[in-house]
Amino acid sequence: MTSAPSSKANIIVVTTGGTIAMAEDQQTKSVRPLSSEALQAVLPYVSDHAKVQMDHYLNIPSPHITPDIMFQISQRAKEWLERPETDGLVITHGTDTLEETAYYLDLVLHFDKPIVVTGAMRSQGELGADGPVNLVNAIRTAAHPRAKGKGVLVVFNDEIHAARWVTKTHTSNVATFRSPSHGPVGYVTKKDILFHQSISKKVQLPHKQPRARVDLIKAAAGTDDCFLRCALDSGAEGIVLEGLGQGNIPPAMLPGVKEALRRNIPIVLVSRCYNGIVQDVYGYEGGGKELKELGVVFSNGLNGQKARIQLIAALNVSKDPEALQEFFEDGII
Ligand SMILES: NC(=O)C[C@H](N)C(=O)O
User: Fold this and answer.
1) What is the pLDDT of residues 170-190, one digit of tens each?
2) For a pocket test of ligand 1, which of 16, 19, 31, 123 has the largest count of ligand atoms closer than 8 A to its C-beta?
3) Is 96 in the pocket of ligand 1 (CB under 6 A)?
4) I want to staple 291 with a disulfide (CB 3.0 to 4.6 A). Which of 193, 241, 281, 296 is the partner?
5) Distance separating the N- and C-terminal Cα atoms of the chain
6) Is 330 known to sit in a ligand binding site?
7) Structure pTM?
8) CA distances for 165 relative to 177, 290, 306, angstroms
9) How many of the other CB atoms lie within 10 Å of CB of 232?
C-alpha cells in the first residue's frame, strides 16, 4: 500500500549551488554555475505531492562553503521553518562538502519538520544528470509525514541517509553518498517514502555564530607533530586528529598532542578507518590508552570532517574536556 500525504505540503527549496546548479560549457568542457532558476524545471513532477516555493539563496560551489556560510544557510533555514505555513525544507548543495553542512544543520536546528539536503553528481544537460530526480525525491521526502522528527536527512540516488552518518564515498559515481557501518535509513521508491531504521539519539548544540578555528590533521605511518605545531602556531582553538585504527598515533606526533593539551587546546580523536569507533584499547606509546590519559576527547564514529564541524559548534558552549567528551560520546543510533 502506498502512503501519499493526504494534502499537499508546503515545501521550501533553498538553493545554495553546487553541480545541481551547474551546466557543462560546450566550448571549454568545464562545469560552471548557471542560474539556479533552471532547477524550477522539476516542479511539475512534484505537483501531486507538494506546493513548492523556491528560494534562490546562493549559487556557490561547495568547496567555497565555510562554517560561516553554513551558519548563514542555517539562519535562512530557521527563518523558513519558523513560519507556521512551512511543512518542510529542502536545501540543494554541492556534494563536496554537503555532509558537513548537513551535519551542521542537524546539530543546530531543532525542528520536527523535515529538513532534506540534496545535490547532484552530473550537471544539467549531461547524459544521466541526477539533479532533477534527486530534487524531486528530496521534495517528496520533505513533504512526507514519515520524515518528521528525524533530524536532517540527505536524499541522493533514491536513498535516504541520516546527516550524522552519511559521507561522500566516490569522486564521480551518482551512488556516492553512503553511510558506512549504518546504511541508509530509508528509500524513495516510485510510489512511496520508506524508512527502515530509526534515528534515536542526536546531539543538539546551540544555534550560534561559529567562531572557533579548528584544524583537521591526519596520522599516517611515520608522521610527526609538524602539522600539530603549525596548527597551534596559527591560532587553532581546537584540533581533530584522524588517528590510526581504533585510535592510535605514531609516537612522533605525541609532543604536539601534549603541547596542545598544555595550552588547553582540545584535541578530538577520530579514526581514519571509515567504519567503527575509537577506543582506549592499546597501551603502547601513542596508543589510545595514553591518549585518553593525556585528556584527548574520543569521538563516537564521526568522520574527521564532521567531528571538526561538531567541535566548532561545541566550542561555542565549552572548552572543558569533560563537557566536550559528553558531546562526542552521545549520539549513536
Ligand atoms: N557534485 C558536486 O556538487 C561537486 C562540486 N564540486 C561541488 O561540490 O560544488
Assistant:
1) 999 999 999 998 999 999 999
2) 19
3) yes
4) 296
5) 28
6) no
7) 0.95
8) 10, 28, 9
9) 18
